[in-house]
Write a structure and sequence with these properties.
The complex is a heterodimer of chains A (489) and B (377). By secondary structure, chain A is an all-alpha fold. In chain A, 68% of the residues lie in helices and 1% in strands. A two-stranded antiparallel ribbon of chain A has the order 1-2. With 377 residues, chain B is of the alpha/beta class. In chain B, the strands form 4 sheets. A 7-stranded mixed β-sheet of chain B has the order 6-5-13-11-12-10-9, sandwiched between helices. Chain B has a two-stranded antiparallel ribbon with strand order 1-2. The chains are: A mainly alpha (489), B alpha/beta (377). At the A-B interface, α1, α2, α9, α17 and α19 of A face α1, β2, α2, α3 and α10 of B.
């Protein structure tokens, strides 16, 4: 079930809010859990059992870690948890990729390929696996106590706003909220504000840009002109940020309606002046997770310089693979890893001497070019696309101008302004977001004072937000509009 | 912590209340809505799936329920109207990806690869052309054996006749178009293919040959098509209607299919012909289904001779009043796209017409080649 589907907006959410606010407080987590399981099973049917198995297994492992005092045995249990969780991910997400590559190797030495039926990839498996790992590692490190209540633990893993596309919530960031979370009128209102802003960003800006990007990335090489390739990349660069951050906005907003406050996941990443800064602003919950549970355990920065570089390359290679089982993602991750290494090797010193505009240009250039690999169907498609970007494709045809209509121009303009944080002063919530450190807003979101903007500003905001909601809903409806030129009665 | 000001509480309450009210209004509206057909979409709306009883039904239930809910959620019509108005008025673009806005309020069909065809981006491959030829040969073989003439008529797409009304940003590649290729093939192999493009282009000088809001031809355009078809028939003593452009004078309001698809409620004024009273007032029987996507209707004109079969699509509708006055009996076979001969041949065998005319819209020319693979199944 998508946040932008009619069944979610006009059935699931209103009914859930009605039930959630009607039942006594002690039952609210159970209501949220049942709703989350329905939300997940709606898309995954019987594969919801995979997630339930992961929840049950990790809950038991957490209890075992809590019960054990012997460091050796605790280490054994946490190692087992890591192996089981990564194993689950490997089986469902990477087995086809691994076997395809193994077969390619076997073919070179004349051995018959292995035939294995690729398993179905359960939705959100990368996210709930990282949540589960966060939990067992937090309990192992003593950063959090094991969760004895199975409903609360299952809710941490399966809570529907973050289940399919994050943000990745570390257990220690939310463990207290699973028991006690006061909801104020302002927090709920900020939740609706945030949801509507994300909903509008997705439906009114990201989707139209995505249509152009999809069309251009699907063009055969013979039709991919220089102009088309650059337009496609520009649209995709904006689309991926607007779409992904919109999903996070909606998740954060929905969570607030139930009293949860998630950490921020984006901080205007396209304003970055280096790759290091980009990763402090892009998919912050993933960066935090990789830093806490992978980079630091590998030694982090506190090892010899060459080890730091190896660690960075390893983390970003795995980061790429986490996004998808395809070499394109590996290359995307490695590009980021390599530029982070270059920056440590002296590029950042060089950049510091450059004008601000050039630093932005450098970061945007690397990030955007890496997106080609992220978006391309395979490596050869990516290479073809990059060739077209330097004029080695279908030449200088102006066919791509057909893709630029007033809506696309408006989306490019508004999307660029939104990415550049131009609209952030408009609401108290967004202004708070500008003051964040690794996703943590300072001061806390619960100090939010919606009234500080004044009556006129609030009235304007109400009109703008409701208009955005209405227009975005009309786009959702348009997605269900399926006219036929011939009768289908 | 300072007490929240009243205005902030009012704002928060209004925002939450209005957002929730909208969601609940949709649910409530749904409870009172019982439409089964969407006129604007030309289709039956998905109905509520039954309670699942088997594993397979459980597995497919969310998908079926989504299909039902997407078609029936409350306020859908209102939201569609809002989307249509906002997109057309504010952005000047079509709210449907199946309709393109041209110049001067002209609408063009974008489904069935029509735009790629207009841009000459989908030329037939050598294999497709060979299959097209094979498909026509298969259709003609039993007819030739029974000494029944066959004429294959291609009705051009509106874009082909009115390219000057297409948006300027839609560039075109150099010809050939698919229709150019088929016409060249027909000339080479002496296939009975009738191309109506030049007739309709010439007719533009005397009136609109296609409706602005519809994908089909006007009464005038259909008449010109009829005249060209009649001229191409190898039958003697055919009573051909002879009208002047001035006789197309009866005003009529038309709800165009493209306007409907774009969610526009406007109606287009067009002009219908005044037929001479001395010609037969033919009788017609209702269409009856005879197979998947095929149905048959017939007309009788006692004063005329010959029994013909006319296999066509939605373009046939405007031809009926002309053709039916020119033949003793016309068996109309309605279908979309070209059908394999094994589906059509039994009908011809049963009806034994003196002649068979088959009409196909330009955008469906590729369906000829596709039938060759289907014939073998």
């Amino acid at each position: 079930m998508l946040f932008s589907s009619p069944v979610f907006l006009f059935l699931f959410m209103p009914l859930l809010l009605l039930v959630y606010w009607s039942v006594p407080r002690p039952l609210r987590n159970s209501v949220l859990l049942v709703a989350s399981l329905v939300f997940y099973a709606w898309g995954e049917r019987f594969f919801a059992l995979v997630m339930l198995g992961s929840i049950f297994g990790n809950w038991l492992l957490g209890l075992a870690l809590d019960a054990l005092t012997d460091p050796g045995r605790r280490k054994l249990v946490v190692a087992a948890a890591v192996v089981l969780n990564i194993g689950l991910l490997a089986v469902f997400k990477y087995s086809e990729f691994l076997i395809a590559n193994l077969n390619a190797l076997l073919e070179t030495v004349g051995i018959a390929p292995i035939t294995v039926v690729a398993p179905h990839l359960p939705l959100g498996i990368s996210f709930f696996t990282f949540h589960a790992l966060s939990y067992v590692i937090d309990v192992y490190r003593g950063v959090a106590r094991a969760q004895r209540r199975p409903v609360d633990f299952a809710l941490y893993i399966a809570f529907f706003p973050q289940l399919i596309a994050g943000p990745i919530i570390r257990y220690h960031d939310i463990s207290d909220q699973l028991r006690r979370r006061p909801v104020t009128l302002e927090l709920a209102a900020s939740g609706i504000e945030r949801f509507l802003a994300g909903f509008g960003k997705k439906m009114l800006l990201a989707n139209p840009l995505g249509e152009v990007a999809d069309h251009i990335f699907a063009l055969p090489a013979a039709e991919l002109s220089l102009g088309a390739a650059w337009l496609g990349l520009l649209c995709y660069t904006l689309q991926i940020y607007l779409d992904f951050s919109a999903y996070s906005d909606m998740a954060i907003g929905l969570a607030r309606l139930f009293g949860f406050t998630f950490l921020e996941n984006f901080n205007y990443p396209y304003l970055s002046q280096s790759l290091q800064e980009f990763w402090r602003r892009w998919h912050i919950s993933l960066s935090n997770w990789l830093r806490d549970y992978l980079y630091i355990p590998l030694g982090g920065n506190r090892v010899a310089p060459w080890r730091v570089y190896v660690n960075l390359a390893t983390v970003f290679l795995l980061c790429g693979l986490w996004h998808g089982a395809n070499w394109t993602f590996v290359v995307w991750g490695l590009i980021h890893g390599l530029f982070l290494i270059f920056e440590r090797l002296g590029l950042s010193t060089l950049l510091a001497r450059m004008p601000r505009l050039l630093r932005h240009a450098y970061t945007l250039a690397v990030v955007s070019l890496a997106w080609v690999f992220f978006r391309a169907a395979d490596l050869s498609h990516a290479i073809t696309y990059l060739k077209a970007m330097v004029g080695l494709g279908a030449g200088w045809s102006l066919d791509f101008l057909g893709d630029i209509d007033p809506l696309v121009v408006i989306c490019l303009a508004l999307g660029s302004l939104a990415s550049a944080a131009v609209f952030s002063p408009l609401t108290a919530d967004w202004r708070l977001r500008r003051n964040q450190n690794q996703g943590r807003v300072d001061p806390d979101i619960r100090t939010l004072q919606i009234g500080q903007d004044g009556v006129v500003m609030m009235a304007g905001r109400l009109i703008v937000l409701l208009s955005i909601g209405l227009l975005a809903s009309s786009q959702v409806a348009a997605g269900t509009y399926n006219p036929f030129i011939y009768f289908r009665f | 912590m300072p007490r929240t000001p009243f205005s902030a509480r009012l704002y928060s309450g209004a925002l939450i209340g209005l957002a929730m009210a909208f969601s609940f209004a949709s649910l409530i509206a749904m409870a009172f809505k019982h439409a089964e057909v969407s006129i604007g979409e030309n289709r039956t709306l998905t109905q509520l799936p039954g309670w699942p009883r088997t594993v397979a039904q459980w597995d497919s239930f969310p998908e079926r329920f989504d299909a039902y809910f997407n078609d029936n959620f409350g306020l859908r019509k209102l939201l569609l109207r809002l989307n249509s108005n906002f997109t057309t008025v504010m952005l000047g673009r079509s709210p449907s990806d199946k309709v393109v806005f041209g110049k001067d309020d002209w609408l063009f069909y974008a489904g069935d690869n029509s735009i790629e065809l207009y841009r000459n981006q989908r030329p037939f491959s050598a294999l497709q052309l060979a299959n097209t030829e094979a498909a026509l040969a298969l259709r003609m073989r039993p007819l030739r054996a029974a000494n029944r003439p066959y004429l294959f008529v291609v009705v051009p797409d509106k874009h082909t006749i009115y390219p000057e009304m297409m948006p300027t940003y839609m560039s075109r590649r150099d010809p050939p178009s698919q229709l150019d290729q088929v016409v060249a093939l027909a000339e080479k192999d002496r296939l009975p293919v009738l191309d109506l493009r030049s007739t309709l282009r010439q007719g533009k000088a005397d009136g609109l040959v296609y409706l602005k809001d519809d994908s089909h031809w006007t009464d005038w355009g259909a008449y010109l098509g009829y005249r060209r078809i009649m001229a191409a028939l190898p039958l003697a003593d055919l009573p051909v209607l002879d009208l002047d452009a001035k006789q197309f004078a009866i005003p009529s309001d038309h709800a165009g299919d493209l306007a409907g698809m774009a969610g526009l409620t406007r109606r287009e004024t067009t002009r219908l012909s005044e037929l001479p009273a001395d010609r037969c007032a033919f009788t017609a029987s209702a269409y009856q289904p005879v197979g998947d996507d095929i149905s048959i209707g017939r007309t009788f004109c006692p004063q005329a001779k010959y029994k013909i079969m006319f296999i066509g699509d939605s373009f046939t509708e405007a031809l009926v009043k002309y053709l039916s006055r020119s033949f003793g009996e016309v068996v109309y076979v309605a279908r979309s796209g070209f059908k394999p001969s094994r589906e059509i041949a039994p009908l011809i065998e049963r009806e034994k017409p003196d002649l068979v005319i088959e009409e196909l819209a330009e955008r469906h020319l590729d369906s000829l080649a596709d039938t060759v693979a289907q014939e073998g199944r």
